[in-house]
Here is the input.
Amino acid sequence: MTRLNRRRRLAAVAVIALAAVTTSACSSSSGGSGNDDGGGGAYLVWDPYPQFADDSDWVALLKKCGTSAGVTVERTGYDTTDLTNKALLAAQQGNSPDVLIVDNPVISTLAEAGALTTTEENKLDISSMEKNLLGAGQSAGKTYGVPIGANTLALYYNKDLLTAAGVDPASVTDWTSLTTALTKVKAKGKKGITFSAIGTEEGSFQFLPWFWGSGAQLTSLDSPQAVSALTLWTDWLKQGLAPNSVINNTQTTSWQEFATGDFAFAENGTWQLANAEKLGFSYGTIAIPASAGGPAPAPTGGEFVSIPVQSKTGRYATSQKLVTCLTSADNLLTTDTTLSYVAPVAAVQDRQATENPKLKVWVEAVRAAKGRTGDNLGTKYPKISEPLWSAVQAALSGGKSPQEALTAAQATATSK
Here is the structure.
């Protein structure tokens, strides 16, 4: 892509981003500073981890990688949404950071805007990365970064409630056996399952394992398989196996419901592991089952480490050293443990599961997971996700049947 075309594309995307930006763009001293040949000087790293202070292990790792590369790392942590907007504007103005760490669905937006270099251009080695996780960072056959780790969804369960209801968690292997387990729990006077079906990306994120687990594809929202997945959820509400509160539940409020001890199951993610240890009851985890059995593909969360386009291309070699350091096997184990992520490298995943057996289910879930922007959807995904979560809302609230809701969703997605 020529520099002129890249700037035109960035300008078009940045118009949208500007509406969400309430602070001024970064000064022209950001990015691209230092020597043309990349030797020495300061290298800028932007990440979505504002919770980590300058004395954190994360920042210590960044500085260590900088020292190894012979440069000084200047790091800034932003809120995820703010970071996306700033990255687009910085690219438009030609002052991008040297290394950018962003939520994986954002990669396709930045890539299609011409803001990122490909791994072919920047020489990042992706050979050890799991292919299903790399998919979230790929567009039109090119890869635009490396995953630093992944989180996903599984089912937490209350051991005490399942024991009282005579349910063996190992028997829950498909939709039929899960619904049977929920029915047994309800018969004992307790509640079945809670999840988040809110009308935002969280709702789509939580519905996708059931959607994909039915065999449905995001390019056909109204397929018979997709209808079966939404029917599963609506039937649970009609039968009292899931509460009406799921319509407004975020993943946080859904977890709070599970934490009361009244629910047998909760769909949630690896980020709740620390909270799970504080529960007042014994818990376990199982993979979300696919309709016909086996683990359903769940969507991947987590970030990619990328190298933005620079006018001084000699900087790429040092940026590559920084990214390689951050995503090396030893550093991944430390970083992903801190972030409650599963590593993107099989050997490191095995080490995680060995050192913490509770992560075994999560490792298996991540290995079966897939990126939301995968299958070459790229920036088409948001145009599909919003109609999808709207359909879920319409069906669960009783406004439309699952078929009617998904037919309308497909029409909307196709028209965008």
